[in-house]
Amino acid sequence: MSSPATTSTPSRSWRDxxxxxxxxxxxxxxxxxxxxxxxxxGLGCVFxxxxxxxxxxxxxxxxSEPARLKEPAHAAPLKQILFATxxxxxxxxxxxxxxxPKGTSLMTLDLGAxxxxxxxxxxxxxxxxxxxxxxxxxxxxLRERTPVARLMVQVGAGAPTALLxxxxxxxxxxxxxxxxxxxRLPWLDGVALRRAARGGFEPIERMDLVxxxxxxAEGLVPQLYAGWEVVSLARLADDQEIxxxxxxxxxxxxxxxxxxxxxxAKLDYIVDTLRTHGALPVERxxxxxxxxxxxxxQETTRLAPARSTAATAAAYPTRQQRDF
Length: 324
Fold this sequence. Notes:
The chain is built from 8 helices and 13 strands. With 324 residues, it is α+β, with helices and mostly antiparallel strands. The chain has 2 domains: 71-144, membrane protein fhac (Ubiquitin-like (UB roll)); 147-323, no CATH class. The strands form 3 sheets. Strands 7-8-9-10-11-12-13 form a 7-stranded mixed β-sheet. The longest helix has 37 residues, at 28-64. The chain starts with 27 loop residues before the first helix and ends with a strand.
């Protein structure tokens, strides 16, 4: 008799048991509280961003257009202007240029407009204006340009006017300088000035090269520099040469592409050598040719007539050239 077949039941674990507990649900009151918290957080963020933007706009308006801000009823007027400069401009020029009405409030000053007035002359290179509210003071600090040369300018049928040129090429009238100091500056030649749209003249191109030559000469060969009368830029654009006319040498040619200190040392050596040997007056020194420096000398030979008469001897100039 066969035994009945038995079917084995697969084993089960606790993971197969259906759980009767569902996810916890929030009550209606809890959902309302959560929603109110989210709304409050969003409104707080919006409020903070709005305050930051308003503060930024207020700062921008204060710096650029302070007149747009409503002046407080009890704003005190400007008491004083503190002034400092590294140049020659004085307090009278500051007061005349700023032209601030009496009783002006420090808060309503348009610093941008005041800066433009101070820069308009060309003599001032940089301006710093600062309000000091603790004592109602405007602090003005100037950095002025330094002239390196003079030039004579005639506009239309007007009379020629002497102007000054700074190392960055800016041309300006010049106020407060002592005449003996200006008289030591050489004159500029070979310059074509162009009118600027905002008034005055456009800066002279490549004036920085000329300024470096003049500064080097004043520091390295002051005795020679003292005799420099005219500096010409006529050859600068095409030949990269700067021509100097002095009381001792009618024409000295410098290369704008070579080291100025080396050229000035050669010039000093040539002049000293010619003086030591009692040479003839120098007509031209060309330092722009590199190695050898041709020096043109001027000789005056006195020729008498063939017959012994009472006629006066005439002088005929001839030229000689030596290389150094």
